[in-house]
Specification:
Helices cover about 55% and strands about 5% of the residues. The chain has eleven helices and five strands.
């Protein structure tokens, strides 16, 4: 497969695409970091809702937690649409100075400054995929585990959603319950039953195919075979590249020019009150857009610091509240008819020699040589000192080991 940059290639390989130079080609770690940023934002959003659920806004937060994935997907779509409209990259991509470039260099994608940029349709579908593809993947995983828990028996899946724990783990279900779920699924009538059974059968193969395609795309990108690191980029006919300083300046000039036009329109309102309201709203919007990226990074860092802080605090509290090991109960006094205790505690009451392989008799708490007490209990079933009965025989003997050994 050739890797040269072909400016006129409109029918190039669906994966190869246009090749960026070494200065604009993102590193593997930049792409991974951008790919994981959305998950970090989702966790931060879920953490914020969980915190609100424990304070005064509990009712609103609880409702939001019930539909947390849906709300986050909609917010992500709005954020991605805004990021792609003001630049050529999504939210996470713009954080790391990345942008999307068209693979097919069509004339309608040529901007006034001589750059090929993604068009409006590519921006829209990029926002849809960035916002809703992870949502659909999570929901499908949760649904498949709920409908076919027998396939996950013996293994505990991780949480598929930051807003709930998913369905009950298949490991926690007994065999009878799993069989009941399978029987109800197979007996489900009508179109719903057919769709349910089809989904249960098709999902594993479809998920494996998607994971394989993603792995191949990442491997090819890592080894420099093509510029596509995500199969979804093929659907929108673009690839990810690093934004050059000149391109960022050109994008900033376009944004400033558009803002100047909006400000002029706002000041052309008929009434003074409308002019003040329009100008104020426009300035607030521009302020939010200017500092949204920095606030985004600060939110992720703050969430990670808070998570670490509370995790360490919970560990300290748990350690502080751990109760000490209670002392053993007092041993019963020696029986007059039993074996007398030696004055030296290091001697075995039976053989009167230094204790070897120490063993404790649980019915009384006295310590003997293992061989001595084993022979005595096996014959008499009691403690030789207190004469307390060893109900379980030699099973009441406990070997003692030195913690340093």
């Amino acid at each position: 497969m050739t890797s040269s940059f072909d400016a006129n290639a409109s029918s190039r390989s669906p994966i190869a695409g246009a090749r960026s130079t070494s200065s604009t080609r993102p590193t593997f770690f930049e792409l991974v970091a951008a790919d994981k940023l959305s998950d970090a934002l989702r966790d931060a959003f879920a953490y914020a809702l969980g915190t609100l659920a424990n304070v005064n806004a509990s009712r609103v937060a609880n409702v939001a937690l019930d539909y947390g994935d849906e709300i986050f997907a909609l917010l992500s779509f709005v954020a991605e649409t805004k990021a792609l409209s003001s630049g050529d990259g999504g939210v996470a991509e713009s954080v790391y100075g990345l942008q999307r470039a068209p693979r097919a260099l069509k004339p309608e994608r040529l901007s006034s400054d001589g750059r090929y940029r993604i068009d409006r349709e590519q921006r829209f579908w990029s926002a849809v995929i960035l916002a809703f593809a992870p949502y659909v993947a999570r929901k499908c995983a949760v649904m498949h585990e709920r409908l076919a828990p027998e396939r996950y028996a013996g293994s505990r899946r991780g949480r598929t959603s930051a807003f709930d724990g998913g369905d009950v783990s298949a490991r926690e279900r007994d065999e009878r319950e799993l069989n009941d779920i399978v029987r109800r699924r197979e007996a489900m009538p009508g179109i719903r039953g057919f769709a349910t059974r089809a989904f249960v059968k098709v999902y594993p193969a479809a998920n494996a195919a998607m994971e394989t395609a993603t792995l191949v795309a990442w491997a090819g990108y890592l080894f420099g075979r093509w510029n596509i690191n995500d199969p979804a980029l093929i659907l929108v006919d673009c690839y990810i590249t690093r934004a050059l300083p000149s391109e960022l300046e050109a994008n900033a000039r376009e944004v400033e020019a558009w803002r100047a036009i909006e400000m002029r329109r706002a000041r052309e309102a008929n009434s003074p009150a409308a002019r003040i309201a329009n100008v104020g709203a426009l300035r607030v919007k521009n302020f939010v857009m200017d500092y949204a990226q920095s606030a985004l990074i600060a939110a992720v860092v703050g969430f990670k610091l808070t998570e670490w802080w509370y995790g360490a605090a919970e560990e300290r509290v748990a350690n502080a509240t751990t109760l000490p090991v209670p002392p053993p109960p007092p041993r019963p006094p020696p029986h007059p008819l039993g074996v007398a205790l030696p004055e030296d505690k290091n001697l075995c009451p039976l053989c009167r020699k230094t204790i070897r392989n120490p063993a404790l008799l649980v019915c009384s708490g006295y310590v003997f040589c293992y061989s001595c007490v084993h022979a005595h209990v096996d014959r008499y079933s009691d403690c030789p000192v207190s004469l307390h009965r060893a109900v379980r025989g030699v099973d009441d003997i406990r070997r003692l080991f030195d913690g340093s050994s």
